[in-house]
Amino acid sequence: MVCTASDLSAWKDFPKGLRVLLLDEDSSSATETKSKLEAMDYIVFSFCNENEALSAISSKEESFQLAIVEVSTSNGNGSFKFLEAAKDFPTIMTSNTQCLSTMMKCMALGAVEFLQKPLSDDKLKNIWQHVVHKAFNTKGRIISESLKPVKQSVVSVLQLQLDNGERAEKAGVSPANKNELERSAGSDKYPAPSTPQLKQVGRFLDDEDFQDHTNSLMKTDSGEHDGETKSVETTGGNTMVEETLIVRELQSLGEIAIKEEIDLADGGNNEGNLCPHPQNKDNLDISRGGTEGESPSKATHSVCRIKANGKKMKVDWTPELHRKFLQAVEQLGIDQAIPSRIVELMKAEGLTRHNVASHLQKFRKQRRHILPKDDDRRWPHQKEQMQRNYCSYKPIMAFPAYHSNPALPAGPVYHVWGAPNTRPAPVPMWGGYPPWPWKPYPGMHADAWGCPVMPPPHTACPSLPQQNTSGFSNAGAVVGYGMPENYFEHHPAEEIVDKVVKEAISKPWLPLPLGLKPPSAEFVLAELSRQGISTIPPNISDCNS
DNA sequence: GGTCAAATAT
DNA sequence: CATATTTGAC
User: Fold this and answer.
1) Please, which positions of strand C sit below 7 A from a protein CB?
2) A3: phi then psi, degrees, rounded to nearest 5
3) Between these two residues, A351 and A137, which has the higher pLDDT value?
4) Which protein residue's Cα is closest to nucleotide C8 at C1'?
5) Among chain A residues 113 through 172, which have CB within 7 angstroms of nucleic chain B?
6) Within a domain: A195
7) Domain end point (choices A116, A139, A158)
8) Which of A158, A179, A214 is the last residue of a domain?
9) What is the Cα–Cα distance from A466 to A461, expressed in whole angstroms?
10) Confidence tier at A22 by pLDDT (50, 70, 90)
């Protein structure tokens, strides 16, 4: 993204106020680092032994957004202990040594970067990127309280800039920078936090949820045959598409989607769009001079849903948001899935119980339509039937079709049987749960809503009756969210089944069925580290000489 | 609060 | 005209 005037004002003091926990036993280097950071407007809390640091993060984790931890021969595993404990926010490891094993271990344990000492201004100046990166790439896990404000701030500013850009355009200014953002969004697949350019903010994509976003991007890119550009109004021509593209990406990052109404009519008075701004500043500066005891993040969390004219903005139930919704519903279990609880679980700022209630209503209605009366077993009215053991309740699938969604927590997926939940299992309670067809394809009627799209996962309920009761004619065309769209577009359902089965056979070591996405390297690493990274040298002393 | 249904917005 | 979301009543 080209640095425009609005950039300068919006991001001017971006890292300002970010709280950095510094753990370094070497007091002189600690002091030096601290002063460098402070010169850059970071707020530094310095610790010289890991126990203090540990207790600091465990008691007030929300007070920090970033940690810099020194690892040395003398502090042994202390730094690693900290690193593991501080998984919720980005931790940069630093050391005098250049031992590859050490670096490797740091990375395996979740460090976001390894910096060789001494820490120069250059090395330090962009560490904020890790904060932003983390804030946007914590899907499926719990996003740390301290990172939420950052995320919101960034989203706000970016959205604001979109608005500004829109206005500038109307004034005849070339929107070159937006094109730039778009381009980078589509092609820059690999996050490289060390690269300072702001354009990275346009695409916070990790392997984990890469597919999703790319899908939507590519679809939008490809023009009008797009299933997701629901909010694209053709009125404005291409610029609107770009606008929407970017906004949508932000939206799909888990924020409540707010439809900014761009009033083409009353060109000048869009001051209301400024509303995200104050929040942004607040969030970043709130910690200034504050004491460690405060938790800045708790302060302001509500998304500004008020338009200039005071009207509330509509909640846009993006696939992403709906996915949260579904997760919540599944997690709660059918008889507990009530608006208030769903709202809690969704953890989507700005979303009200009413919003959810409404969505739930629609959701239920749709289901009723899809699963005709005879087996409406899953809704509370039929208490007698609730206990019946329907196949869709059984955790047969380790990777239920619907869950091929990468945004879901990786944790329980491979442990369906031992899932901690009180419910039977984190399994879709609505067997073969259909994707939510947001504007599937042009011309397709929206009552395709509940159409089961996935071929019934082979091992799963072969007898599930309603799988076929509703119109299936479009099955080939409707594509589930979170699935690689092309996959379906080019493979008839039977081929898919075949493919999945073959894969299952060829990889017997994996749980069945495999789902549609093989475990990524990332997943394996994560799993390894979760289990204590036995493959990595237990200590570093052997390489420090 | 939860649900349902009418009212609105898109 | 059909849908999606919000509003309001029960």
Assistant:
1) 2-8
2) -85, 105
3) A351
4) A354
5) none
6) no
7) A158
8) A158
9) 11
10) very high
Q: Is the CB of A355 under 7 A from strand C?
A: yes
Residue-level pLDDT at A12: 65
Structure tokens at A26: 């070497």
Closest nucleotide (C1' vs CA) to A358 is C5
> A355 is in which domain, residue-wise?
319-366
Residues of chain A (431-450) having a beta carbon less than 7 angstroms from strand C: 445-447, 449
pTM of the model: 0.38
Read off the pLDDT of residues A421-443 as tens digits, 9 standing for 90 and up: 333 333 343 333 445 555 544 43
CA distance A315 to A66: 32
Give me the CA A362–C1' B6 separation in Å, rounded.
Answer: 15
Residue A68 sits at φ, ψ, to 5 deg, of: -120, 120
A239 CA → B8 C1’, Å? 28
pLDDT (0 to 100) of residue A48: 86
Q: How many angstroms is C1' of C6 away from CA of A239? A: 29
CATH at residue A360: 1.10.10.60
Q: Note the CA–C1' distance, A358 to B3, in angstroms.
A: 10
Q: How far is the CA of A372 from the C1' of C3 (A)?
A: 21
Residues 247-306 of A with CB under 7 A from strand B: 259, 261
CA–CA gap between residue A351 and residue A393 (Å, rounded): 29
What single string gives the DSSP state of each residue in A204-220?
---HHHHHHHHHHHHHH
Residue A535 placed within a domain: no
A230 nearest nucleotide via C1' and CA:
B10
The tens digit of pLDDT for each residue in A213-242 reads: 333 333 333 333 333 333 333 333 444 444
Which nucleotide, over all strands, has the C1' atom closest to the CA of A361? B3
Dist CA A90 CA A112 (whole Å)? 6
Q: What are phi and psi of A496, to 5 degrees?
A: -60, -50
Average pLDDT taken over every residue of chain A: 58
The number of domains in chain A is 2
**CATH code for the domain of A82:** 3.40.50.2300
Residues 343-402 of A with CB under 7 A from strand B: 353, 357-358, 360-361, 364, 380
Residue in A260, A103, A255 with CA at minimum distance from that of residue A167? A260
Backbone CA torsion sign across A218, A222, A227, A228:
positive
Q: What is the largest CA-CA distance in chain A?
A: 74
Protein residue minimizing CA–C1' distance to B4: A361
Give the pLDDT confidence of A125-165 residue by residue, as tens digits.
889 888 888 888 776 556 677 777 777 777 767 766 665 55
The reply to whether A367 has its C-beta less than 7 Å from any atom of strand C is no
What residues contact A148, with CB distance under 8 A and at least 6 apart?
A135, A297, A301, A349
The alpha carbon dihedral of A355, A357, A362, A367 has a sign of positive
Q: Nearest protein residue to C3's C1' (by CA)?
A: A446
pLDDT given for residue A132 in this prediction: 86
Task: Say if CB A191 and CB A137 are below 8 A apart.
Answer: yes
Report the b/e string of A330-361 with b at 16+ CB within 10 A.
bbbbbeebebebbbebbebbbbbeebbeebbe
Is A225 part of a structural domain of the chain?
no
